[in-house]
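hey all, quick one before standup. I had two proteins in the batch that finished overnight and I want to keep them in one place so we stop losing track of which output belongs to which input. First protein below, input sequence then structure tokens straight from the run.
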Amino acid sequence: MPGFFVYMPTVLFYNGWRFFFYSNENNEPVHIHCQKGEKDCKFWLKVEEYDVDLAFSFNMNSRDLNEVRKLIFNNFQYLIEKWSEFQQKKI
């Protein structure tokens, strides 16, 4: 598609995991994408409950998912702030 560009800002990089958003996911609730090599996942960040739900994972085992989940919880407020900043820039 000519002129189509997807911006994917990295908001956190830790232990090889890249945490980022996609610019073309309009109207989706707060979430974060995580990638390391061929491993990929997406978590919904449930702000009110201070919880996360796995949206999908690819090529990841339970240890990978637990590591990412822990990193998300350790940076929960930061990720929410970055999500809000990113959404404001899109308006």
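OK second protein, same deal, sequence then tokens:
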Amino acid sequence: MPNVEKDLKLYYSIGEVAERFGVKPSLLRFWEKQFPEIAPKTAGRGVRQYRKEDVETIALIYHLVKERGMTIQGARQRLKDNKEATVRNYEIVSRLEAVKAELLAIKAELDEEE
């Protein structure tokens, strides 16, 4: 699962967002057309500037489509029908995966000591 960093940056380029999720910029442009929730600011010459909220929405869409295997239409409907519950479930899964990674790191350290 991609890590959505918590930092003070106001805007992210399409390249930065694509790299963060391990996808191509063309996929992000496609998702913009499919999900009205993604609305990056466009600067001169059509340069996209994603806000933190856009990146969080992309993380949620990534989770639904890439990790859970939903179709674009299914993910769009899920966000439309029950976005709050979907966000809550995503946050819980993210926290549990972070705890799992931390426990695995502790286990690895303990195994090295033996």
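Flagging for whoever picks this up: Residues 18 and 26 are 9 Å apart (CA to CA). The beta strands are 41-42, 48-49.
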